[in-house]
Specification:
By secondary structure, the protein is mainly alpha-helical. About 70% of the residues lie in helices and about 0% in strands. It is elongated and about 75 Å long. The mean pLDDT is about 90.
Length: about 150
């Protein structure tokens, strides 16, 4: 017998589907793209600075940053998740110390992160307002017809 998730165990017929946060989807997308950039940036630094930096340090920091970026997607719905995302934006920009191009790449991703968070909050707020208005209309019109 297959194991059911918590959401599957708690589901009952007629239950409305829980809406996913647009802010979390936008932020997750940015973080996943940054994880790829960090991984490929690691390979670039390894190739460009082969004699200057220990390979173990380069790969440890680069892959570690990539993993943390991916894992942060899981905590974005928590109150401190977005703050962790901002810290990671700063860390990505600071990788420019080793490879100056990363100042530009990290800065552009930080702008994208800010825009995704800001726009996602606005879209989530508008969707919640629409849901409240729909619920009020449904309560006023139980048979589904307008007055």
């Amino acid at each position: 017998m297959a194991r059911l998730t918590k959401a599957q165990r708690e589901w009952r017929p007629g239950m409305p589907k829980k809406r996913r946060s647009t802010k979390v989807m936008f932020a997750s997308t940015v973080l996943l793209l940054e994880a790829f950039v960090a991984l490929f940036g690691t390979l670039a630094v390894f190739g460009l600075r082969r004699g200057e930096l220990p390979p173990l340090l380069v790969f440890g920091v680069g892959i570690g940053l990539s993993v943390v970026l991916v894992l942060t997607c899981a905590v974005l719905s928590k109150p401190w998740g977005v703050a962790l995302g901002w810290i990671l934006q700063i860390l990505l920009i600071l990788t420019g110390i080793v490879e100056p191009t990363m100042y530009v790449v990290g800065g552009l991703f930080a702008i994208t992160w800010w825009y995704g968070i800001r726009t996602g909050i606005r879209i989530d707020r508008e969707a919640a307002q629409r849901e409240r208005e729909q619920a009020a209309w449904d309560a006023a019109n139980p048979d589904g017809q307008s007055n």
